[in-house]
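Data deposition worksheet. Section B asks for the primary sequence of the deposited chain exactly as it was used as input, without tags or linkers unless they were present during the calculation. Section C holds the resulting structure in token form. Section D is free text for depositor observations; keep each observation to a single sentence. Incomplete worksheets are returned to the depositor.
Section A, Depositor: J.P.
Section B:
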Amino acid sequence: MKKILYTIGLSATMLFTACEADYLDLDPQDTITEAAYFTEPSHFEAAANDFYNKMVSWREIDGSSPYDFMDLGTDLTAYTQSYGRGILTTSNGDKYWRNSYKYIRANNILLQKASEYKGDKTDIAQYVAEAKFFRAWHHFLLLQRFGGVPIVTTVLDLESPELQGKRMSRYQVMAQIIADLNDAIEALPLEQNIPSNKKGHISKWAAMSFKARVLLFEATWEKYVGTSTDGDGTSTGAGSEAHNPANVNTYLTEAVKLTKEVMDNGGYEIWNHNDKLNNGSSYFLFCLEDADSNPAGLDKSSNKEFILYNKYDYDIYQGGQQISHTVQSRMAASRKFMDMFLCTDGLPISKSPLFKGYAKVSHEYQNRDYRQAAYFGKINNGEIPSDGSVQLKGSRAYDGRKFRAYNYGTYRAARTESADYAQIRLAEVYLIYAEALIELNNAITDEQLNASVNKIRNRAGIASLTNALVNDNGLDMLQEIRRERTIELYGENSRYNDLKRWGIAESELNQDICSSVIEGSEFENNPDLYTPNVYPYGELSVETGKGTLRALLIDPAANRDFKRMHYLYPIPLEEIQLNNSLVQNPNY
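Section C:
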């Protein structure tokens, strides 16, 4: 019976974090039993502060890893990974199941103690709101990963019947998430009212932004995936109880409303310092620390784009991960992703006269979206690679730079990178707003585009997205908005979830993964730059921005078998063994 308590996260004690220097992410410094605690507001505050520890960010907490949430091995990377190939087997345990329920228990303890609190409950209202926000946060992670799951809203003990309870459907879980977020939004402070020494705490705008993310995810999942992953709830899956097709438009409508309010009133701004950073804002935003972290001498105080984030600091709380080293190889771009970046006229490379082609390595980057060089330019400075400088002898051509520290190895050594970890930022809010509008109305006005995605495109140095641009060039507005999301949120735990909620993961993830164009390029017949026999899969003729050309094949489609069943992870076997009411997801 004790194992049940552990696996569903029902720890006997609760950890509280002392708030040293107002950093929310410090490791717990004391362990205090519930019975001796929660007698004054400061106790609730300390407990709520520890909740921030439990979001996945740079630091590994309870075995969680940021690299599990950077979309490694998707169709956008030349780095292969089991999940992207559709290799997913049922395992004994799952740390994200176990951790989520452990964290939900801590949220429920605070909420229970708040209901028993004898003092002025307005003094603890913010901490109650934070507990509900985080309970929604963890239930949503479970929903995305497993579909319908048990809902836990009370503090369970050894005799609680919920320990043998069945999975709720995804629609019931969504209802609980929405209810918690509604309560949180009502009681959380505006960002403008959070004092400087408390920055990093959840604001009303952060909760509204997160709710918009949740609503867009579920609306599009129900629109494109429907009930196909639900199972019958008896022999497989969590079933479809409480499914209501009307929720699609309801959720989209509210997502538009929420994001518009954040956009208009939140006080956030796109971090655009291209004039000082040689058009590299999309790189330096993600390695921003003190004034030495970028050539313009900007520090974190200049960043008004992050809406919810985990705070890090070189002197107090470093990232502790080999971030720069890891992203260089694992976030290397695929041929597909490199070709996805638009030219500066706002057109795809197959339609733009500005595209220079592949004859020289520098040509690919000329007249293109600034994010291409920011993410995949020269590792040290982000400049366009010079001709003849890229060697394919066992390495990939497009090494990753996003999240890599500026002057890595000099300014920052391995495991000392301390940029803040963005959970939600304004660019995503703009993208949610635009996507929800086009999904809801099958249309979006130029004014709405200018208020959202075009602010992102402006930083990227590409022409505004307009209805005329789309109509005159045979483009599709929905696909162009999805393109913007794909590029802007690269590596930010978006791609896998997006492909699944759009119902296209099978078609996109099962394609051949290629890298550099060889045919007609400086690599062809040039042993100083390219040794073909190093690569086991050789070359493959693929569609490119200049027609069908041979490119380096990294992972053939024959190795990839992503199926609809893989939209959800399997329920851990130890959970099913401990609770016979839990039914496995379909086809596992």
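Section D:
The CA atoms of residues 243 and 335 lie 40 Å apart.
The beta strands are 14-16, 30-32, 306-310, 421-425, 513-517, 539-544, 547-555.
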